[in-house]
């Protein structure tokens, strides 16, 4: 069973660089994901009901990539590492390979700007993302995993040059 936790406006959910014991599913309220750089806060995303965040560090065992805080009082369902990883076991070997490839790209690639130099991995991902979306290659029928896959693809697309 997920733990439901209430957060008040301004409360910190987790910090960048921490190890991860849980992912968060927004039940109510709004939460902000941000990073700190030399100039201050860099806004990454606002999350609302039904959105999962804090999951990347659970997938690969890495550290938190950003801070998360409450910006409108709400409740989070905290999904512990064991339950989260058990959900990933339904992925086929190919789906898990795609998850891992996208995750590695998201972890290492900056958000794309014209100054960013293309890497071999970026070139692979540019070709891979449209195929994943078109073929629904990460569709599992499990709502949680399907939302997670869409978010991972979205994170990857934010790091790619805009087409067209």
What does this protein look like?
The protein has 164 residues and is an alpha+beta fold. The protein contains five helices and six strands; from the N terminus they run βββββαβαααα. It has helices at 56-60, 81-88, 93-108, 120-135, 143-158; strands spanning 3-7, 12-14, 22-37, 40-47, 52-53, 67-80. Helix 3 (93-108) runs parallel beside helix 5. The mean pLDDT is 85.
What is the fold's blueprint, element by element?
Elements: E1 3-7, E2 12-14, E3 22-37, E4 40-47, E5 52-53, H1 56-60, E6 67-80, H2 81-88, H3 93-108, H4 120-135, H5 143-158
Antiparallel strand pairs: 1-6, 2-6, 3-4, 3-5, 3-6
Helix pairs in contact: 3-4, 3-5
Give helix % range: 25-40%
Give the CATH class of the largest domain.
Answer: Mainly Beta
Please give the alpha-carbon distance between the first and last residues: 45 Å
CATH superfamily label of the largest domain: Jelly Rolls
User: Can you tell me the number of structural domains?
Assistant: 2
Rg, alpha carbons: 16 Å
Q: Averaging pLDDT over every residue, what do you get?
A: 85
How many runs of DSSP E, i.e. beta strands?
6
The helix-strand sequence is: EEEEEHEHHHH
Unreliable residue stretches: none
Main sheet makeup: 6 strands, antiparallel
Task: Summarize it.
The protein is an alpha+beta fold and 164 residues long.
């Amino acid at each position: 069973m997920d733990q439901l936790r209430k957060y008040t406006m301004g409360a910190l959910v987790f910090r960048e660089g921490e190890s991860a014991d849980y992912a968060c599913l927004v039940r109510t309220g709004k939460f902000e994901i941000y990073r700190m750089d030399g100039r201050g806060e860099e806004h990454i995303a606002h999350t609302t009901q039904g959105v999962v965040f804090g999951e990347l560090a659970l997938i690969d065992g890495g550290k938190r990539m950003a801070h998360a805080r409450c910006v409108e009082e709400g409740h989070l369902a905290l999904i512990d590492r064991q339950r989260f990883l058990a959900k990933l076991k339904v992925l086929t070997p190919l789906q898990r390979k795609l998850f891992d490839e996208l995750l590695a790209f998201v972890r290492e690639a900056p958000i794309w700007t014209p100054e960013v130099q293309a890497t071999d991995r970026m070139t692979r991902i540019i070709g891979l993302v449209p195929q994943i979306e078109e073929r629904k290659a990460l569709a599992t029928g499990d709502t949680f995993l399907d939302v997670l896959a869409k978010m991972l693809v979205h994170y990857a697309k934010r790091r790619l040059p805009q087409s067209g």
